[in-house]
Amino acid sequence: MVDSPLYGIKKADEFYRELNNDTSNSELHLKGIFEDNESNNLALYFTYKWTLKNNQKVEFDVVDIIEFDNQNKISKLKIIYDTVTARKLVEQL
User: Fold this and answer.
1) pLDDT greater than 90 at residue 8
2) What span, in angstroms and rounded, lies between the C-alpha atoms of 68 and 54?
3) In this predicted model, what pLDDT tens digit does every residue of 13-61 receive, in sequence order?
4) CA-CA 20 to 30 A from 84: which of 8, 22, 41, 72?
5) What is the pLDDT of residues 68-89, one digit of tens each?
6) In 1-93, which ranges are continuous DSSP H helix?
7) Backbone dihedral region of 55: left (phi > 0), alpha (psi from -120 to 50 degrees) or beta?
8) How, if at all, do strands 8-10 and 57-68 pair?
9) Any residues with CB less than 8 A from the CB of 31 and at least 6 apart, and which?
10) Cross-strand bridge partners of residue 9
């Protein structure tokens, strides 16, 4: 499952299909990886450069919190970022 501030809570395949449909290009620049030894969570901190299908561009910092199950497979992805600019651009698509 993916919990995204723009796309809501969706199955991963649905989320990535929608994101791909809205995207012509994207770049991630990793800033840090954070482990929580008391849980099955890992956090990624990165800058996301996103070019939408209509060639509008937006850049923002993101924190992804990844939750792993007992078999070390990703069970949930929580995406955190400020959507003020990105939301307006996605609504224009």
Assistant:
1) yes
2) 35
3) 999 999 999 999 999 999 999 998 888 999 999 999 999 999 999 999 9
4) 41
5) 999 989 999 999 999 888 878 8
6) 12-22, 84-91
7) left
8) unpaired
9) 45, 46, 47, 61
10) 3
Both tokens assigned to 78? 């929580």
What domains, with CATH codes, occur in the chain?
2-91 (3.10.450.50)
Given the structure tokens 């649905």, which residue do they identify?
14
* pTM for the full predicted model: 0.87
Q: What angle do CA 70, 74, 79 make, to 5 degrees?
A: 135
- State the greatest distance between any 2 C-alpha atoms of the chain, in Å, as a whole number: 43
**Tokens matching residue 9:** 């809570």
Q: Of 43, 45, 41, nearest to 72 (Cα)?
A: 41
